[in-house]
Amino acid sequence: MYKLKDKVAIVTGASKGIGAGIARQLAADGAQVVVNYASGRSGADQVVADIDAAGGTAVAVGADVTDAAQVAALVTAAIDRFGRLDIVVNNAGIYQLAEIGDTTEELYRRQFDINVLGPLLVIRAAAPHLGKGASIINIGSNVTRVLPPGSAVYTGTKGALDAITGVLARELGPRGIRVNAVSPGMIETEGTHAAGAIGSAFQAWYENLTPLGRIGQVRDIAPIVAYLASDDAGWVTGEIILGSGGMR
Ligand code: NAP
């Protein structure tokens, strides 16, 4: 049963990590998927090839989510290619930890630009094309509950995104557009490998405090997003769903 049949999705930051897993999941559930990337063209092409090989439909489109013109072109590409837009997943994001003494304006601006301005620009560009039954899903983080020391800026971006999710659920609800967030716990991705988190003392600390006793995998998050994207979640909006093994 293809629960996203006839729906068209944009997934930002889908060249690797959680976004790539979400793109694959939405395609497996029947959606036609725009696989967005910023610098990872080859990764996005591989995701598209995997989706094609599995019998799905996808296209890779490059766009930096902090650039309004590129974001507008991303949405136009989705409409031109597939004729409609139903699902927007704001996944593109970065995490750069720093204690307050090492927190620079550059670190602040880069994280807020990608993690907060990016989703706002994407939703602004997409909203005119969305109608009744459409679903916007923002990828937050359980750091807003865990409040890890050294994450003031990153956690601030995800707190802002949670608030934006709630506001836009109210603002777009009268048009039948749902807006929700999924907040993952620590997930093994290219990003967490590059950050040195996998195999670190932080991972051991994290797992020790997680009721389900492990960090997450991309497959733990993608089905939650697919559910929120589907009509099964037609009465769910303004929610922040933790996918964190109970860690909060
Ligand atoms: P990742 O492996 O580092 O992948 C990040 C993705 O974001 C890449 O596809 C990258 O594209 C894209 N991206 C970065 N800057 C972009 C920009 N300006 N425009 C468009 N795309 C951009 O990260 P991840 O671990 O999968 O994390 C994905 C999301 O989940 C983030 O929002 C993160 O905050 C959130 N999250 C992650 C975890 C975790 O433990 N992994 C936990 C909670 C929340 P290119 O490669 O093409 O540059």
Automatic annotation (TrEMBL):
Keyword Oxidoreductase assigned to the entry: answer is yes
InterPro entries named in the record: KR_dom (IPR057326), NAD(P)-bd_dom_sf (IPR036291), Sc_DH/Rdtase_CS (IPR020904), SDR_fam (IPR002347)
Q: PANTHER family, from UniProt? A: OXIDOREDUCTASE, SHORT-CHAIN DEHYDROGENASE/REDUCTASE FAMILY (AFU_ORTHOLOGUE AFUA_5G02870), SHORT-CHAIN DEHYDROGENASE_REDUCTASE FAMILY PROTEIN
Instruction: Return the SMART domains for the record.
Output: PKS_KR
* UniProt record similarity statement: Belongs to the short-chain dehydrogenases/reductases (SDR) family.
Cited Pfam families: adh_short_C2
Species annotation? Pseudoduganella lurida
Q: Which residue range or ranges hold the Ketoreductase domain?
A: 7-185
Which is one GO molecular function term here? oxidoreductase activity
Keywords (alphabetical) are: Oxidoreductase
Identify this protein by name.
3-oxoacyl-[acyl-carrier protein] reductase
Q: Does the keyword Oxidoreductase apply?
A: yes
